[in-house]
Amino acid sequence: MIISKDKYWKRVRKEEQSKKLFLVYLDEVCLKSDKGHKLKLSEQLANEVVREWSADGKLSRIKNSFFTKFCFSATDITKTEREAVLGCLIEYGNCDPICYIASEPTKLHLKQEKLYSPLINWAEKFFSIKLNVGTGLLFVEQPPSNANIIKTYLEELDNFHLTAIHELTKSLGSLFTCLALYKDLINLELAWEVANVEDNFRIEVWGDVEEEKQKRSVDFDHFKDLTKLLQMI
């Protein structure tokens, strides 16, 4: 575990291990997570971590860099934390926004139907489940068997993929949109459009607000980083 508060190393490098996984070294010291675990990374992820640890700055700032922070979290996740992530994702699937299509105004209804319906059809076929769809704000109850089917799929993912999907699902607000992106059914621009269809409609009708525009830009940049990260695992 790295305990110094200041950067003390001169060189950062990656070193290949078995199964095309890489370790990262600070001089001759293997970089470890906060809990003392070696980071076993894909080559692309290792390159990003090497880049972050090669930058100048305090150790605390480097450890909070985007890729390093993710890799530490995914490496250190406990069994209890993993179960909590699985539970959170199942909850997203149980009340996924794509299952709620506004009845009015008509323009929003048609837009949501156009964007959501292909995702609903895909999710039903992919998981062999039935998704109930509502047109109002009231909770739409999904078939009880859906949760176990979704959980069975997610349990097969390793900690890195599961953590990335969890972060992407939070960013999009939708498990099924995230998984459609993960399985290359849709691209990131369409995924973001699906996630923001109501906000985009509101802006079209009422106009934009500068503060909200800036926040959306930051959120979109974060989403793009998460998408890039998922492709590197």
Architecture overview:
- By secondary structure, the protein is mainly alpha-helical.
- It folds into 2 domains: 12-76, ATP12-like (2-Layer Sandwich); 79-232, Orthogonal Bundle (ATP12-like fold), CATH 1.10.3580.10.
- It has 11 helices and 3 strands; from the N terminus they run E-E-E-H-H-H-H-H-H-H-H-H-H-H.
- A 3-stranded antiparallel β-sheet has the order 1-2-3, covered by helices on one side.
- The longest helix has 23 residues, at 210-232.
- The two termini are 23 Å apart.
- The mean pLDDT is 93.
Question: Short description, anyone?
Answer:
The protein has eleven helices and three strands. By secondary structure, the chain is mainly α.
Primary descriptors:
11 helices; ATP12-like fold; 3 strands; globular; ATP12-like; single chain; 233 residues; 2 domains
Secondary structure elements and pairings:
Layout: E1 12-16, E2 22-26, E3 29-30, H1 43-54, H2 59-63, H3 66-76, H4 79-94, H5 106-127, H6 145-155, H7 159-172, H8 175-182, H9 188-195, H10 197-206, H11 210-232
Antiparallel strand pairs: 1-2, 2-3
Helix pairs in contact: 3-7, 4-6, 4-7, 7-8, 7-11, 8-9
